[in-house]
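Thread: "does anyone have the structure for this chain?"

Original post by V.I.:
We have the sequence but no experimental structure in hand. Need at least a predicted one for the grant figures.
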Amino acid sequence: MLTSKENFLLAAVEHKKPEWVPNEMSDVIMYGGAFESFENGPAGGGLDGFGVTWHATESAGGQPVPGGKPVLDDIEKWEDVVKFPNLDEYDWEGSLAMQSAIMGADRDQRVVEYGMWNGQFLRLTHLMGFENALCAMLEEPEACDALFTAITDYKIKLVERVAKHFKPDIITSYDDIATERGLFMSPGTYRSLIKPHHKRLNDAIRANGIVPFIHTCGKCEEIIPDYVEIGTAAWTSAQPMNDIEGILKKYGSQIAVVGGYDTNGRPGLEDATNEEIDADVKRCMETYGSYGSYVFMGFRLMSGAGPESFMEGILPINAAVEKYKHIK
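Reply from O.Q.:
Generated one for you, C-alpha cells below.
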C-alpha cells in the first residue's frame, strides 16, 4: 500500500490516478507562507521586509493584510523607492526548527510543501494598492515589467535558500490574479506582463530539484493552459466558480487540480454545519474524485488567527474526507 506521500505525489506530480483521493490538508507539511515575516510582517501586524505595513483584521480572520499609505506611488520611480528583504539576515535554521515543531516533520509519510506568498502581481498591489497597481500595468507596462523582473530575481534567491534549508518536495508560488468573476486583467495582459516572470520562477524552482505549484484563487480558468505551458505541476486552490471537471478532463494529464471545496459559500464559513461540510466534501469526491490529477483541499475562514484556529476549521472537513476519499 502506498504512503500518503506517495499517493499524493502520484496524483499531483505524476498526474496519474491515485489509490484514493489525496487531501492537501492532511497529507502535506506546510512550511513558509504566514511564517515568512520578511514577506508578511510579524504576527499581529507590522512592517515587512519591503517596508509595507500589515494590519491584522477581523474580516481576514485575524490574518494580517497590507494597508496604510502606499510605499510606491509612481511606478517609474520604483528603483529609488522599493527595497527588498535581506534574506541573509533571516534565521533560516531557527525558522525551520520552529515550523517543524508546529507543523510536523514526518517527511517520509507526508509531502513537504513550502508556500511562497505575495507573487509578482500581489507584491505590486501591496506596494501601490490595487487601483494604482492596475493603472500602472495599463499605463506603464515597461516599468512594471522591470519591477516584476526585480521581484522575480529576489524570489529566485528565496528559492535557493528554501531549497538549502527546508528541502521541500514542492514550492507553491501564490499570486492571486483573479476575483470570483474573472481575472483582474485581460488574459493578454497576463500573458505579456506576468506570465514570463511566472515561468522564470517555475524554471528556477525546477532547477533546484523542486516541483512548482501555483496558487491562484478566484475564476482563472482562462489561463490554465498558460499554467500548463510554463511547467506548473499543479494549480491550487481551485474554487468551484471554475469548471474544475472540464479542466480535469482537458488538462488532467498535464496539470493537477488542488481544491474543489466551496470556500466561498456556506461550507467555507465558520458557522457551517457538519451536514453542510459533509455534503460539499461528498460533492467534490463524487464529481472530481474519479479523475487522476485531483487533490482535495478544503478550509474555512475562522475568526482567530494562527495554526490552532486554522486546524479547528479543517478538522470536520478532514473527517468527512476520510468517509468519502475512496469514492470513484
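V.I.: this helps a lot. The two ends are 18 Å apart (CA to CA).
O.Q.: and The first strand starts at residue 28 and ends at 32.
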